[in-house]
Design a protein that fits this description.
The chain is built from 11 helices and 4 strands. The N and C termini lie far apart (52 Å). It is globular. The protein is α/β, with parallel strands linked by helices. Strands 2-1-3-4 form a 4-stranded parallel sheet, with helices on both faces. Helix content is 49%, strand content 8%.
């Protein structure tokens, strides 16, 4: 069966406005979110497809390239003007045989982005990783408060934590590469004096887990998935809160502020783990 293109996946017309595309994406992402589908593999695959589709259509430049050049614009993330191989169909990132190829590509790109992690290992820093679903809400909302708390304790800027032997990061079990922080999380963190506007999501990988000393999962589904997929790193996994941290997805600012408060309380409680284990 021929793979669907991004417009078909999001259920919008090629003439749809960016706001219409965003609304369609949010509706589908909320319906298909892994936390709401209890391990349903069909919903999980659809969730990945919807995120991949929005990664194209939610970006004006990528959308313009796709509209002009079609599937070829998606070839290995290259500029469509130099791409000569079709990526939809058998090579589609939205389903079919090409899904694995895209994942291989993303893994290779992630290895490049993890150069910093290699530097960390060279300097024998203590590496702490937070893991949620999309790496656009809960895990960065844990990462940055911990950075600030540690910097205050060490009386140094957050940018100098590595020199002090500490590196704090975050990632997601289901995410588009380099997605921005969600609007609600951005506003909630701004209310706490933290600017997350430069945040870009990344997927959790074996390399990240290998380099981490501790990996805090935001709820039980993340913990279970990582324990099952990467049993060799199970001893590094922790739950930030044994009861889990509810996803504020779809909530108002008060919901995000409540989530931020919950996370910060748990972050304060794990500082001794970071130094003591």
């Amino acid at each position: 069966m021929k793979a669907q293109g991004p417009y078909q996946i999001l259920g919008v017309a090629p003439s749809a406005s960016q706001d219409e595309i965003k609304r369609a994406y949010r509706k589908l992402a909320q319906e298909l979110h892994p936390d709401r589908n209890d391990g349903n593999p069909v919903a999980e695959e659809r969730f990945k497809q919807v995120n991949s589709a929005y990664e194209v259509l939610g970006n004006r430049e990528k959308r313009e390239l796709y509209d002009e050049f079609g599937a070829a614009s998606l070839q290995s993330g290259l500029d469509a003007r130099s791409a000569g191989v079709q990526c939809f169909g058998d090579g589609s990132p939205f389903g079919g045989a090409g899904a694995g190829d895209l994942q291989d590509l993303l893994s290779q790109l992630e290895m490049v982005r993890e150069d910093t992690l290699s530097d960390i290992q060279v300097h024998s820093a203590r590496v702490v990783l937070f893991v949620c679903t999309g790496n656009t809400r809960r895990s960065p909302m844990a990462e940055h408060p911990l950075r600030r708390s540690l910097a205050e304790a060490l009386e140094c800027p957050p940018s100098e934590l590595l020199a002090e032997g500490l590196e704090i990061g975050s990632s997601g079990t289901h995410t588009c590469a380099r997605a921005s922080i969600s609007e609600g999380a951005l506003r909630a963190m701004e209310a706490r004096g933290l600017d997350l506007s430069d945040h870009e999501s990344r997927a959790v990988t074996p390399a990240l887990l290998s380099g981490a000393d501790l990996a805090y999962c935001l709820n039980g589904s993340h913990y279970s998935r990582l324990s099952y997929s990467y049993p060799e790193y199970a001893e590094k996994l922790r739950l930030l809160d044994p009861a889990g941290v509810p996803d504020p997805f779809g909530g108002d600012l008060d919901t995000y502020l409540g989530c931020a408060h919950h996370i910060e309380q748990r972050v304060d409680a794990i500082v001794s783990d970071i130094y003591g284990e």
